[in-house]
Design goal:
Length: 102
């Protein structure tokens, strides 16, 4: 009699089914709950941003970072060489869609 109820297979299955049903109900009532990472519009937007980024002319610093990235250097190593933050290197990489051909 000291056994926990959730250890019973039929209770656990019933709980899971109700939990899934509640999640579906919540998503219908509030569409903002649904993650849109895999939606077609977010994928198109990401591809458009990438295409635009590959057309932007790189600055001298960006060209240097691009060469270092092609040599398989880490963000940490590049940030130490250039004296910028790791986030700065990451942002530059995303902004110019690096590594790419110059």
């Amino acid at each position: 009699m000291n056994k926990m109820l959730m250890d019973e297979p039929h209770i656990a299955e019933m709980y899971r089914n109700r939990w899934v049903a509640q999640n579906i109900k919540d998503m219908k009532e509030n569409p903002k709950i649904i993650s849109n990472f895999n939606s077609a519009s977010s994928l198109r937007r990401a591809q458009k941003e990438r295409t635009e980024a590959s057309n932007i002319e790189m600055t001298e610093k960006a060209k240097f970072v691009n060469r270092l990235l092609k040599k398989k250097m880490t963000h940490n190593e590049i940030s130490e060489i250039l004296g910028i933050t790791i986030k700065g290197v990451s942002d530059m990489k995303r902004r110019y869609d690096m590594p790419r051909e110059e």
